[in-house]
Structure formats: structure tokens, C-alpha cells
Design goal:
This protein has about 350 residues and is an alpha/beta fold. It folds into two domains: about 130 residues, NAD(P)-binding Rossmann-like Domain (Rossmann fold); about 170 residues, Dihydrodipicolinate Reductase, domain 2 (2-Layer Sandwich). The protein has ten helices and 14 strands. The strands form two sheets. An eight-stranded mixed sheet has the order 13-12-11-7-10-9-8-14. A six-stranded parallel sheet has the order 3-2-1-4-5-6, with helices on both faces. Helix 3 links the parallel strand 2 and strand 3. Helix 5 packs parallel to helix 6, helix 6 runs antiparallel to helix 10 and helix 8 crosses helix 10. The termini are far apart.
Length: about 350
């Protein structure tokens, strides 16, 4: 038996019994049953918690207050949407001595994030943000392409996605922004330019339709992020959605289509051009399997039980929220902003 298997399971309470709680977090706990034990469900609507406990066959249905005060619960997962409730629930859970995972976006604004961070530091507890898209196989493939040097010195990354529901810009863009932060390796961003389908929408969490933003890093790398309107292909790719990622460097350009299976991660990208025509970007080593790459909850267990690094720190979550605020400011003011992010 490994040291990890010998560790006591982390007892979990989930607040929020909608799609995020039941379709995203609950399957993760099933997968990692040797690491976690879900013991309680809660929701702002008590009946939803009762339904979740019945459907999953595990855990008790509690009020949010009861779950936060429950002595058995060690980790509180805040899976409520939209993020307007994240701060209050997370702060109360941290003050009660719980570790906390909060769904992305971390909060409504960066000031709320700061309050959550201060509370976690004072309580001496882990506060982590569920930016699970860091472990998508297409994004891992992008990281591999860049780190391998196959496209040379990085100059441009385009990271775009299709969606069109109310609030989709903030809800999904925060994933793209977080991925961009990871690719930029904690270097500063010094400039942002953005435009929205709804340029006059002042609430950063209510923009809908589409948007496009360009962030420039201190090293001169351009990162384009955006939510695109739903389309049925394009002139260049009839019948297909626009590409998911485009990576351009001094020695070539690669793109990746949307994919989820690890075996597809490298079969779905194509070299557009290269200064060395004989170089085949497809020769890059592929990701062996999903299980070979530790995911968010495996890394979080190590942080709780083995004092390893937090997989997504609260400060990283706050930085993504602040980037979104600056994107919104640029769009609302219709100008390029000089930033220090």
C-alpha cells in the first residue's frame, strides 16, 4: 500500500447541487474514492441538497450553515453559480476551520478575492480555485508544443472558444485567462485591448454574446483570448468550428482543434509553416494517458495531507479575475490600457 493510500481520506461537503456540483465535482470524488469521502450536500435551496443526496446515494442533506459548522467536514467545495455567493460562503467556511475549493470565477470582483485570501491566511487553511481546464489534454498539448521548442521562440498564442449563453463571457473566459496566465509563466502583462459584443454592459459578470481581447506580456508575447459567436464553420474551415488554439513562434506555427481524449491531443494539430520544412511537429511526444497526468483533486489531496503546493492558489484565481476587470475596462472605455498585472 502506498503512502497516499495510507493517508486518511479527506471528508468533503459540497455547497451547490447544480450542474457544477453534480456533473463536475461529484464524478471527481468518485474517481478518487481512495482519497476523498463526500459526507454532505448543501444548497441555498434545501430540496436540491436532498435530491443530490438521494441521487448519489451518499452524504447527508444539510443547510449551508449546517454544512459549514459540521465537525466531520474538512473540505468545503463551493460549487454555486453565479459567483455572487462565493465570497460569503468561502469566508464563513474558512473561519470555521475548513479548507475551501471555490468554483471559478473565484468571485464577482478582485476586492472580494482579496477578502477571501486574507481570511484563508488568517485561518491557516488552503483556499484553492477550481480552474480545472489547466488539465485539459488540448491545453497540455499546447504546453508541450511550447516547452519543446518546436515552434521556436514564442511570439503569439490564440486561445478562443465558442459560446453564446447569458454570462458566458465571464464564466468561460476566466478559463481562457487562467490558461494564458499559465502559458505566460507568471511574467507580467503590460498592455490590454478588448472589445465586446455589448460594449455598454458595466457588470463584468453579465456580458454575453462574444468578446475579443489581446494581452501583451513584458517579453513582447501576444496572447489573444476570446469567446466567439456560434458559427457553422468558416471560409477557411467549412463545416468546422474555428480552431481552439494557435501557437506561433520564430520557427513555425501550430494549431490544435478541440479534443478531450489524450490520444487525440497531438493527432489534431497541424504545422502551418516552418523555417525547417523537414521538421514534423507531429513527432512531439504525446501524453500517455489521462491517468498519467495528475489532475486538480489529486494535487489538492497532496496539498492537504502532504503539505505540497496548492494546485491553483487563491492569488492565481484573483489575478485571473483582475485580468477580466481590465479587459472589461478596455472594452468599456474603447481604448488600449497600459497595465501592471
Amino acid at each position: 500500500m502506498s503512502n497516499r493510500e495510507e493517508r486518511e481520506k479527506v471528508k468533503v461537503g459540497v455547497v451547490g447541487c447544480g450542474a457544477a456540483g453534480l456533473r463536475i465535482h461529484w464524478p471527481r470524488f468518485l474517481k478518487h474514492g481512495c482519497l476523498y469521502q463526500l459526507v454532505a450536500w448543501a444548497d441555498l435551496v434545501r430540496e436540491k441538497a436532498e435530491k443530490a443526496a438521494l441521487e448519489t446515494g451518499v452524504g447527508r442533506a444539510l443547510s449551508v450553515e449546517e454544512l459549514i459548522e459540521d465537525k466531520q467536514v474538512e473540505l468545503v467545495v463551493v460549487a454555486t453559480k453565479p459567483p455572487v455567493t462565493h465570497r460569503d460562503i468561502a469566508v464563513k467556511a474558512l473561519q470555521s476551520g475548513k479548507h475551501v475549493v471555490v468554483e471559478k470565477p473565484m468571485a464577482t470582483n478582485s476586492e472580494e478575492c482579496e477578502e477571501m485570501i486574507r481570511t484563508a491566511e488568517k485561518a491557516g487553511r488552503i483556499l484553492s480555485v477550481h480552474h480545472n481546464r489547466r488539465w485539459d489534454v488540448d491545453f497540455l498539448a499546447v504546453r508541450e508544443i511550447i516547452s519543446s521548442g518546436a515552434v521556436g521562440e514564442l511570439r503569439l498564442v490564440r486561445n478562443e472558444f465558442l459560446a453564446g449563453y447569458l454570462g458566458c463571457c465571464y464564466d468561460w473566459a476566466i478559463h481562457l485567462i487562467d490558461q494564458t496566465m499559465v502559458l505566460n509563466q507568471n511574467r507580467k502583462f503590460v498592455e490590454v485591448t478588448a472589445t465586446f459584443c455589448q460594449p455598454g454592459c458595466s457588470r463584468t459578470d453579465e456580458n454575453q454574446g462574444f468578446f475579443s481581447a489581446r494581452l501583451r506580456s513584458e517579453s513582447g508575447i501576444i496572447y489573444d483570448v476570446g469567446m466567439l459567436p456560434p458559427v457553422n464553420g468558416s471560409a477557411l474551415r467549412p463545416g468546422k468550428a474555428p480552431i481552439r488554439f494557435l501557437i506561433a513562434g520564430t520557427e513555425g506555427v501550430a494549431y490544435i482543434d478541440w479534443c478531450q481524449r489524450p490520444e487525440d491531443a497531438f493527432s489534431k494539430f497541424i504545422s502551418y509553416h516552418s523555417l525547417e520544412p523537414q521538421k514534423n511537429l507531429g513527432d512531439l511526444k504525446s501524453i500517455e494517458s489521462e491517468l498519467a497526468v495528475e489532475d486538480f483533486y489529486q494535487l489538492l489531496f497532496s496539498a492537504i495531507r502532504e503539505e505540497k503546493p496548492n494546485p491553483v492558489s487563491a492569488k492565481e484565481g484573483q489575478r485571473a479575475v483582475r485580468a477580466w476587470e481590465l479587459i472589461c475596462q478596455s472594452a468599456l472605455e474603447n481604448r488600449c490600457l497600459s497595465i501592471d498585472l
